[in-house]
Amino acid sequence: MEQVNCYRITPHAVVWSSGEGEESSQRELFASDLVRLREHKLIGSTVFATSAFTLYLLTAGELELGEGQIFGPGDLVWCPAAGESLVVGDKGVTFYAIEALQNIGRELAAQHILGAQIPWESFDDPAGRPTQPVQVLLDGSLSALRTRFDPSYIAGEHWHDFDTLYFISDGRMQFGDEGWFD
Fold first, then answer.
1. Among 12, 24, 118, 174, which has the minimal tally of Cβ within 10 Å of its Cβ?
2. Which of 82, 44, 41 lies closest to 58 in space, CA to CA?
3. Using only C-alpha atoms, what is the Rg of the chain?
4. Positive or negative, the Cα torsion across 100, 92, 10, 125?
5. pLDDT of the chain, 182 residues: tens digit per residue
6. Are 35 and 99 in contact (CB under 8 A)?
7. Number of other residues whose CB lies within 10 A of the CB of residue 159
8. What is the Cα–Cα distance from 67 to 69, expressed in whole angstroms?
9. What's 71's DSSP letter?
10. How far is CA 15 from the centre of its chain?
11. Are 141 and 104 in contact (CB under 8 A)?
12. Torsion of Cα atoms, 108 then 113 then 117 then 118, to 10°
């Protein structure tokens, strides 16, 4: 089996840098030849222009689209083209920006994903192992799934046939001998 590199990213250990003016700060958490992961903080009531081929995952605060649609923590915005304008809510916003490099996600249309509106569904494991419910938020060469695990759930040893980023938004979980992530 091919050796796979795994990285543990602990955002609190990465220093914030100022963006343009005092309106924003960011920190680069990970970069490879496939994706670049940054975390951004923007002050309230500013306008933010999106970057091309970037998936935005909101973690705090709100963003508003021109037509009044509000995005909050857990919601996603997929932007295959640059320049969509989003207005930051009064209290500011924090989000992850996952920039897809190479040809990842090129076939996907722009999408604004309100997680609360996506139904939870059963995930059928091809190997027949027990699973937990998922929300399919984005599906293509770049996919996003949300799952929730019952306390003490054990997924068992497994692998993915694709690169995977995990964002633990509530609680904590353990991956094999790698310790706890929260």
1. 12
2. 41
3. 17
4. negative
5. 455 667 778 777 788 888 666 788 999 999 999 999 999 999 999 998 999 999 999 999 999 987 789 999 999 999 999 999 999 999 999 999 999 998 899 999 999 999 999 999 998 888 787 888 999 999 999 999 999 988 888 777 777 777 888 888 888 888 777 778 88
6. yes
7. 8
8. 6
9. E
10. 20
11. yes
12. 40
Residue type, 140: G
For the record, the structure tokens of 124 come out as 């059928």
- How far is it, in rounded angstroms, from Cα 75 to Cα 115? 5
Type of residue at 93 = V
Residues 53/99, Cβ–Cβ less than 8 Å: yes
In this structure, what token pair is assigned to residue 119? Answer: 């139904």
Q: How far apart are CA 46 and CA 20, in angstroms?
A: 12
Sequence-ordered list of residues with C-beta below 8 angstroms from that of 46, at least 6 positions apart, any chain:
23, 24, 87, 88
